[in-house]
Write a structure and sequence with these properties.
The chain is α/β, with parallel strands linked by helices. The chain has 14 helices and 22 strands. Strands 1, 2, 3, 4, 5, 6 and 17 form a 7-stranded mixed β-sheet that branches. Strands 8-15-9-10-11 form a 5-stranded parallel β-sheet. The longest helix is centred in the N-terminal third of the chain and has 25 residues.
């Protein structure tokens, strides 16, 4: 029986980062993972493979729509779906192999298999039981379905199945207009699939700034995606490799049936904690099935911690990573810190969408006096040069102090641009601080500076 200072259960972004940080802090560390490769959902069947397909299909879109305008003439490329899948798998392999290298470099033991906690201070993997002074639960999440709908990963698929379809479907229905649904819908729409998104709410991207919601829906519709909003899915029937989906309008209760080759269920995710034995140990859970923790990521059972998708908060890889590092530092006797008010969210459609902090709707609900500075990418020279001038940057600041309260971007490289705003917010900075910072020309980041200027006397280039 091996003995460790820390055993991490789960090798996704939260788990492997926690393990590496524990090792860096001098703690003898092991990580339990049952997959054949490290990296969890994110690297294997989530963030990384989806970005590979988004990149590949965006290049196809550029070739079909913009190359000729730039003088790049010739036949549009044809799609070899098998080769595109191989490219995606190569990207996944490079990243998961990189995590295995980091484990060896940091002398972290990979305990291969599925873990459980028979009692506090012990972790069972297969037939072996290991001792641990501290245990970190980093088991992530799994796709959530709808009542009565069975996911077979062939005709009715989760995001996992959508990444590896045997062929490009002619018709796809996406249930859920959140991040996963819109990203995967974008991939197949670019490949020529007729994509229809069915959403329960009357808007897409729940929780995001309403102006962003409206703009993104308009742009995705322009790209060929169709939206059925304010509608509840009633059933999905499959026969001979085809599907029939019935939904009911929440306005008038009328029912409509749609045909499709594939139905993607993208209605969110739920914590994955089955088989760990937590309830038997007396670990407390929230009403939504999340592991309950205190401000230091500790559960009510001494020596057991939890991070990432398994606990309360946005189900984002970078949130899990931050918690993994902070939890490791707490265990090592240091001060772990996560600023939950400055966690950016990104949608990797084209254009990209990124947000951080408060939305206008939240500020209005709070009764907070604020100012909004906005700048369109149509006024950005770099964006216009690459056919990416749709969208805008919006920065929200306290009306009296000018302190940045939130920001919302839809446009080129939004997922990267948001971070200078995150850094400014982390230091309690103002829009004026951003506006006074020299930004290189020509760059997309100038749009961020212009939005900051718009919070004051006004932007220059609009």
């Amino acid at each position: 029986m091996a003995s460790y200072d820390v055993i991490v259960i789960g090798a996704g972004p939260g788990g492997y980062v926690a393990a590496i940080r524990c090792a860096q802090l001098g703690l003898k560390t092991a990580c339990v993972e049952g997959r054949e490769t490290l990296g969890g959902t994110c690297l294997n069947v989530g963030c990384i493979p989806s970005k590979a397909l988004l990149h590949a299909t965006h290049q196809l879109h550029e070739a079909e729509h913009n190359f000729a305008t730039m003088g790049l003439k010739g036949k549009s490329p044809s799609v070899d779906w098998k080769v595109m899948q191989e490219y995606k798998d190569t990207v996944v392999g490079q990243n998961t192999g990189g995590i295995e290298f980091l484990f060896k470099k940091n002398k972290i033991d990979w305990l291969k298999g599925w873990g459980s906690i028979p009692e506090a201070g012990k972790v069972k993997v297969g037939d072996e039981v290991h001792e641990a002074k501290n245990i970190i639960i980093a088991t992530g999440s799994e796709p959530a379905s709808l009542p009565g709908i069975e996911i077979d990963e062939k005709t009715v698929v989760s995001s996992t199945g959508a990444l590896a379809l045997p062929k490009v479907p002619k018709k796809m229905i996406v249930v859920g207009a959140g991040v996963i649904g819109l990203e995967m819908g974008s991939v197949y729409a670019r490949l020529g699939t007729e994509v229809t998104v069915v959403e329960f709410l009357d808007h897409i991207t729940p929780g995001m700034d309403k102006e962003i919601q409206r703009s993104l829906q308009k742009l995705l519709t322009k790209q060929g995606m169709s939206f059925v909003l304010n509608s509840a899915v009633q059933s999905v029937e499959t026969s001979r490799g085809k599907a029939k989906l019935t939904y009911k309008s929440r306005k008038d209760d009328s029912e409509t049936t749609l045909d499709a080759d594939v139905v993607l269920i993208a209605t969110g995710r739920k914590p994955y904690t089955d088989g760990l034995g937590l309830k038997e140990l007396g670990v407390e859970f929230t009403e939504r099935g999340q592991v309950k923790t205190d401000d230091h990521w500790a559960t009510n059972v001494k020596g057991i911690y939890a991070i990432g998708d398994a606990i309360v908060g946005p189900m984002l890889a970078h949130k899990a990573e931050d918690e993994g590092m902070a939890c490791a530092e707490v265990i090592a006797g240091k001060h772990g810190h996560v600023n939950y008010g400055v966690i950016p969210g990104v949608i990797y459609t084209h254009p990209e969408v990124a947000s951080v902090g408060k939305t206008e709707e939240q500020l209005k609900d709070e009764g907070r006096a604020y100012k909004a500075g906005k700048f369109p990418f149509m006024g950005n020279a770099r964006a216009k040069a690459i056919f990416a001038a749709e969208g805008f940057v919006k920065i929200l600041v306290d009306k009296e102090t000018d302190r940045i309260l939130g920001a919302h971007i839809i446009g080129p490289c939004a997922g990267d641009l948001i971070h200078e705003i995150c850094v400014t917010m982390e230091y309690g900075g103002s829009a004026e601080d951003l506006a006074l910072t020299c930004h290189a020309h020509p760059t997309y980041s100038e749009a961020v500076r212009e939005a900051a200027l718009a919070c004051g006397d006004g932007a220059i280039h609009v």
